[in-house]
DNA sequence: ATAGGGTTAG
């Protein structure tokens, strides 16, 4: 083995491969290698040292180590060596060590910086949000006549994207045209498109794209994503279909795009097309698909994606993003147990995983679990963000935990340095309102330091419905009619509040407002998945279902049995001034009751009946289903527009508070 | 070297 290393060391340094030797001047070729060349030996030593320094830098894990090596760099006379210095900057960048002054120091010592060193600095500063420094380096570089490379511009455009400075971007864009050769550099152009798209100047991005003599997949994908982010899926789809050769990233951009733009069915459709065309998928694709399934909220899709994840051999425990997406999906598909299982097995958990899980618990009414998890994440050092607090506060709000909620709200700024946003205030108004402190909730809405939005007044209006307070409702509704004049739900809520207070004239007035605006009531709709796996829809008051006769029989039967144990239809849930008899008839054809009847007929007794609903459940349906879960001993899970109700044994997981 | 990813209130 010693022999082998000996063999390597005898390869002459000045060895010139044969195919190149003919290009060399004759003299050099014919000159015999002198037995000793002090200079080249020194060179040799120097390059040895250089590579030692480089590999030492590669092994660095802390700033101290880097500083030690830097000292060595200076000691050995490498303070002008761009190669080593570039490496140093890149390591600092990679390790996210703030280089506000450190890198500048390095830069100032170098007399003849090369483009790579300058570019590494620009990029490093940019990634640390020090865009001014990036631009400074660029101007220094122009002053010293260092010619930029493509990557210089790319880094600069990225920097402009970071600080939202389109003017600067435009300026530099101009320079790419002036400074030789970059006007047509595809890499530079792609970075430019990315910048414009990121800053919302989609038209400029498009112009750059259209003027390109040739484009690559990356230019196309960037623009597609631009349209996706702008919510224009039609243009995105058009571009995508024109794309001559599509790869996984482009496909994924479309799948994710549909998911992000609330078109989950299209997302799944694209995903299936993608599979059919034999395009590879990876975890990024899956995240988009999982998110689409979450939006559909059907257990069927949760199971479907579970199989896909398993068949593709992805381990959701490994990838924190996939795991977090799964937590959200399982929660939204009604199985907080599965969500927690997914959470439990994740190897790495971050603020997303915790926030999703907390929101999942909150959604299902497990406030204590949500709070416990919150404290756990704080304890193990994961810093909550503003989304986390939304979850925690909703959890408190849905469980009447006013004091805990208040404390957490106050701790946001004090302990975690997150100043509450409008949405947090709306959680607080909700928390107070649900607990019946309407005056205090109103006061908070009126005195909060931020401009209250629809969420704030909407929460208050909702609380007024729960506690039948038409006066405060009127205040909240007036704000809402201004902020969201076309949101039908607000008019309906207000009219219901007036109705339950018997203020029928006011009801008529609200109706008139709705008519004048041309707003029509959103019909109540529920759906469930049948035994055969078909989604069946039920509309309130709809008697045209083929099995309506049987369903009606079931409901009447249930009604009688429930009345026998003390249930009374809740007439307050009907906002029409009609006879009690008529109210009872309307109540019994609410869509969730129809779905429930169908579910009892169709679904085997061992399985829960899962119903989804487009609007909030009324009081009457809630107590009716509570009763049904008791007398039939069935588990019934209803998802309304914002949360889940698990009915079991006469009780609901929301504790009659939602 | 450049393109695609998860959590949010009434």
From TrEMBL:
The keyword Ribosomal protein does not apply. The keyword Nucleotide-binding does not apply. GO terms for biological process: RNA modification. Gene3D superfamilies: Tetratricopeptide repeat domain (1.25.40.10). One of its GO terms (molecular function) is RNA binding. Keywords: Repeat. InterPro entries: DYW_dom (IPR032867), E2_motif (IPR046849), E_motif (IPR046848), PPR_At4g14850-like_plant (IPR046960), PPR_rpt (IPR002885), TPR-like_helical_dom_sf (IPR011990). PPR repeats lie at residues 114-148, 216-246, 247-281, 350-384. Residues 566-658 form the DYW domain. Belongs to the PPR family. PCMP-H subfamily. This is DYW domain-containing protein. It comes from Gossypium schwendimanii. The lineage of its organism: Eukaryota, Viridiplantae, Streptophyta, Embryophyta, Tracheophyta.
């Amino acid at each position: 083995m010693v022999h082998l290393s000996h063999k390597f060391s005898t390869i002459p340094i000045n060895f010139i491969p044969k195919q190149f030797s003919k290009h060399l001047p004759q003299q050099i070729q014919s000159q015999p290698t002198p037995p000793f060349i002090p200079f080249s030996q020194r060179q040799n030593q120097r390059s040895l040292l250089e590579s030692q320094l480089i590999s030492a830098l590669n092994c660095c894990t802390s700033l101290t180590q880097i500083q030690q090596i830097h000292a060595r760099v200076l000691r050995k006379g490498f303070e002008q060596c761009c190669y080593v210095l570039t490496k140093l900057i890149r390591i600092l960048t990679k390790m996210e060590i703030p280089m506000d002054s450190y890198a500048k120091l390095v830069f100032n010592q170098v007399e003849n910086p090369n483009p790579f060193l300058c570019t590494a600095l620009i990029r490093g500063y940019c990634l640390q949000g020090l865009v001014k420094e990036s631009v400074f380096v660029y101007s220094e570089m122009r002053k010293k006549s260092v010619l930029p490379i493509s990557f210089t511009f790319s880094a600069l455009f990225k920097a402009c994207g970071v600080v939202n400075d389109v003017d600067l971007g435009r300026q530099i864009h101009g320079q790419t045209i002036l400074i030789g050769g970059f006007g047509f550099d595809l890499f530079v152009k792609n970075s430019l498109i990315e910048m414009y798209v990121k800053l919302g100047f989609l038209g400029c991005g498009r112009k750059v794209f259209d003027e390109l003599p040739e484009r690559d997949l990356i230019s196309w994908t960037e623009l597609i994503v631009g349209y996706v982010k702008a919510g224009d899926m039609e243009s995105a789809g058009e571009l995508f279909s024109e794309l001559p050769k599509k790869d996984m990233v482009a496909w994924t951009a479309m799948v994710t795009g549909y998911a992000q733009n609330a078109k989950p069915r299209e997302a799944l459709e694209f995903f299936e097309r993608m599979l059919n065309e034999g395009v590879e998928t990876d975890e990024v694709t899956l995240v988009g698909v999982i998110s689409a399934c979450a939006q559909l909220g059907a257990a069927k899709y949760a199971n479907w994606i579970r199989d896909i994840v398993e068949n593709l051999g992805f381990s959701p425990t490994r990838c924190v993003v996939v795991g977090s997406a799964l937590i959200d999906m399982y929660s939204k598909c009604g199985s907080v147990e599965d969500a927690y299982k997914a959470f439990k097995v994740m190897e790495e958990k971050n603020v997303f995983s915790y926030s999703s899980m907390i929101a999942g618990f909150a959604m299902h009414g497990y406030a204590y679990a949500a709070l416990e998890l919150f404290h756990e994440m704080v304890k193990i050092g994961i810093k909550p963000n503003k989304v986390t607090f939304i979850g925690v506060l909703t959890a408190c709000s849905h469980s009447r935990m006013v004091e805990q909620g208040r404390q957490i709200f106050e701790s946001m700024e004090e302990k975690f340095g997150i100043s509450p946003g409008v949405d947090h205030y709306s959680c607080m108004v909700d928390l107070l309102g649900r607990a019946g402190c309407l005056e205090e909730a109103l006061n908070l809405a009126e005195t909060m330091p931020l401009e209250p939005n629809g969420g704030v007044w909407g929460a208050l209006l909702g609380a007024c419905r729960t506690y039948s307070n038409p006066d405060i409702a009127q205040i909240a509704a007036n704000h809402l009619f201004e902020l969201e004049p076309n949101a039908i739900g607000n008019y309906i809520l207000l009219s219901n509040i007036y109705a339950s207070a018997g203020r029928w004239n006011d009801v008529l007035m609200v109706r008139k407002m709705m008519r004048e605006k041309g707003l029509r009531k959103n019909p109540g709709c529920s759906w469930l998945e049948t035994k055969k796996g078909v989604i069946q829809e039920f509309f309130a008051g709809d008697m045209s279902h083929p099995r309506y006769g049987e369903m009606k029989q079931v409901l009447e039967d249930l009604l009688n049995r429930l009345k026998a144990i003390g249930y009374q239809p809740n007439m307050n849930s009907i906002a029409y001034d009609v006879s009690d008899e008529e109210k009872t008839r309307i109540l019994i054809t609410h869509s969730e009751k129809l779905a429930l009847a169908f579910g009892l007929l169709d679904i085997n007794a061992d399985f829960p009946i899962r119903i989804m609903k487009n609007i909030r459940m009324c009081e009457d349906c809630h107590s009716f289903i509570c009763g049904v879960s008791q007398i039939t001993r069935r588990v019934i899970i209803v998802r309304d527009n914002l949360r889940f109700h698990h009915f079991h044994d006469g009780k609901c997981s929301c504790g009659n508070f939602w």
